[in-house]
Amino acid sequence: MKQLGFFDVEERLARLSGLGDQLEAFSRTVDFEVFRPDLEKALAYSDQGGRPPFDPGLMFKILVIQTLNNLSDERTEYLINGRLSFMRFLGLGLSDRVPDAKTLWLFRERLTQAGTIERLFDRFDATLRNAGYLPMSGQILDATRVAAPKQCNTNAEKADLRAGGILEDWQDKSAKLSHKDRHARWTLKFTKAKRQDDGTMPPSDLAIPFFGYKSHVSIDRKFRFIRKWKTTDAAASDGARLREGLLDKTNTASSVWADTAYRSKANEDFMEKQGFVSKVHRKKPHLKPMPLHIQRSNAGKSVIRSRVEHVFADQKSQTGLFIRTVGITRAIMRIGLANIVYNMRRFLFLQRISTTA
Prior knowledge:
By secondary structure, the protein is α/β, with parallel strands linked by helices. The protein has 15 helices and six strands.
């Protein structure tokens, strides 16, 4: 096999462009320099000699690649070395030094401990607003469970974790403690029972155990960008998050759509006091049939509310959203990156259809 020359590489890159390289579209559309001030502030590199650190903009782009493709640090290092599309997106040549897995982990860890992900999200949200994508037509709230590696704990350890404590046995074993996720929780995911092969219906719905975290988002109805978000353990209530900064007061309309999990007197009073108009689904009366007018009202709301499901479907099917790390601080970083990348992909889509219209 002959060695690749300069023109061979250029020809291969041109072919990738013709096939629709998503990363090339990212480079054309997203100004990654807007993230630099927050990245440099969080990293706070000092000039102490030695090998200079990698450029923060380059490292953040690597996190975008990793999130887009649901890659581990080791796999990310390998693919950057092997894929021309990744090299072009990062501005690297075949002879340039590539960050290794440990360097990538340390970079992400510094951003995580500095709590930078919220500022990075807000920075890109400001970019969207400057491009004319203001939060409009009301907002839609929902939450989805995000799986994490299951923990093998005894019943006593589980009870201690739920109480917020740490077993003495763990305190003496720092290596074991570092691998124990003390913030993720078990919960039950209820799924509608499916009709059997013989045509009969099971007497009850399915309750599937689930371990991990929960991603709460608020999207604007007009452009479907994520505007507000929050990360909790999987057992946390959806409805209570509505009153914890999940509503966007900058939306040009006051309507709020959500499913029945968000219907409560406390939430209704809160929205009324804050000037929002509730379009939250109404619950079925206990042991009574659902009134016809409420059925019709909920059906009309579902047409709008269902748009938020597309956000979660995109994150899980296209980018394989999953928590690989331990602890809620790192889970916030992972979900925050997924939300930024979703908004970037949505931005690319809207820009593309606006230029072809």
